[in-house]
Backbone:
C-alpha cells in the first residue's frame, strides 16, 4: 500500500508515552484540587495542566507534531483561552 | 491564474489528515470555548452560588472519565498506526475498544445526570446548572456520535476513514480536556 503523504504517522512508543503523560497530568490535576494551596495557585496549575494536555493531544494524537506552524497557532489560541479563563477566575 | 484549490506546499497542505475534519475541529473548539468563557463571565455575578453549585458535582467520576477518554483516544490513534502497518485485525479491535470506552464515559455521565435529577437539580436550579447541562450534554452528544463513527470506521476500515474517525474522536477528547477543569474544578 502506497503511503498517503497527507496521512499522519507516529510510532507506537510515542503514542504510549503521550497516553501516559495525559494520564499522569490528569491525576496531577485531581491531586491539585485536594492540596491546601491558595486558589490562584490551584486554579493556575489546573489550567496550565489542561493546556499541556491539550497540546499533547494536538501534537501526538492529532499529528500536529509534523506541522509546527499549526501546532504553534493552536498553542497560542489555547494559551489565550486559558489565560482569559484564569483571569475571569481570579476576578 | 489560480484554480482556487490548495497550492502544493501551502500552510493548509501541511495539515495531517482530512482538511474538513480540521474545519470541524476548529469550529467545535470555538463553540465550546465561547460557552466556557460565557460560563466564567456569568460566574462573576454570583461566585459564591457557583462554588456552592459546583460542590454538588461528582468530581471523582468526572476525573475517572478523563482517564477513560484519553485512553480511548490512545486506542483510536493506535488503530490508525496499526492500520497503516496493514494490521487490520488489531486496528479493528482498537477501534472497538475505543468505542467501548466511549460507552463507559456515557454510562458514568448518565449516572451523574440521574443523580442530579434525583436530587431535583435541573437546568433551572441555578445558572451554573444551565451551563453544566448545556455544555456537558452537548459534549456527551458528540461522544455518542463519536462512538457511532468509531464503529463505522472499524467496519469500513480504509486508512483514510480511520484517520477521519480518529480525528473526530480526538476533537471530542480535546474539548473534554478544556471543559472538565473549568466546569468541575475551578470552584
Residues:
Amino acid at each position: 500500500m502506497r503511503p498517503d503523504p497527507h496521512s499522519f504517522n507516529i510510532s507506537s512508543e510515542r503514542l504510549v508515552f503521550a497516553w501516559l503523560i495525559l494520564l499522569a497530568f490528569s491525576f496531577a490535576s485531581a491531586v491539585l484540587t485536594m492540596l491546601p494551596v491558595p486558589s490562584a495557585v490551584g486554579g493556575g496549575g489546573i489550567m496550565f495542566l489542561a493546556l499541556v494536555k491539550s497540546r499533547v493531544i494536538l501534537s501526538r494524537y492529532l499529528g500536529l507534531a509534523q506541522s509546527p506552524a499549526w501546532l504553534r497557532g493552536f498553542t497560542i489560541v489555547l494559551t489565550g483561552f486559558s489565560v482569559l479563563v484564569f483571569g475571569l477566575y481570579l476576578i | 491564474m489560480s484554480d482556487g484549490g490548495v497550492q502544493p506546499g501551502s500552510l493548509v497542505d501541511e495539515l495531517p489528515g482530512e482538511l474538513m475534519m480540521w474545519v470541524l475541529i476548529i469550529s467545535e473548539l470555538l463553540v465550546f470555548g465561547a460557552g466556557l468563557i460565557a460560563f466564567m463571565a456569568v460566574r462573576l455575578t454570583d461566585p459564591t452560588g457557583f462554588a456552592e453549585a459546583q460542590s454538588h458535582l461528582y468530581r471523582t467520576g468526572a476525573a475517572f472519565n478523563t482517564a477513560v477518554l484519553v485512553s480511548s483516544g490512545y486506542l483510536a490513534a493506535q488503530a490508525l498506526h496499526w492500520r497503516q502497518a496493514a494490521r487490520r485485525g488489531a486496528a479493528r479491535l482498537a477501534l472497538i475498544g475505543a468505542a467501548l470506552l466511549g460507552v463507559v464515559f456515557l454510562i458514568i455521565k448518565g449516572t451523574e445526570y440521574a443523580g442530579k435529577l434525583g436530587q431535583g437539580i435541573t437546568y433551572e436550579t441555578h445558572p451554573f446548572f444551565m451551563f453544566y447541562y448545556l455544555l456537558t450534554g452537548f459534549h456527551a452528544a458528540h461522544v455518542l456520535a463519536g462512538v457511532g463513527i468509531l464503529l463505522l470506521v472499524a467496519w469500513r476500515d480504509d486508512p483514510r476513514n480511520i484517520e477521519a474517525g480518529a480525528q473526530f474522536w480526538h476533537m471530542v477528547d480535546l474539548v473534554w480536556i478544556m471543559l472538565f477543569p473549568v466546569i468541575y474544578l475551578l470552584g
Remarks:
- Residues 17 and 60 of chain A are 9 Å apart (CA to CA).
- Chain A has a mean pLDDT of 89.
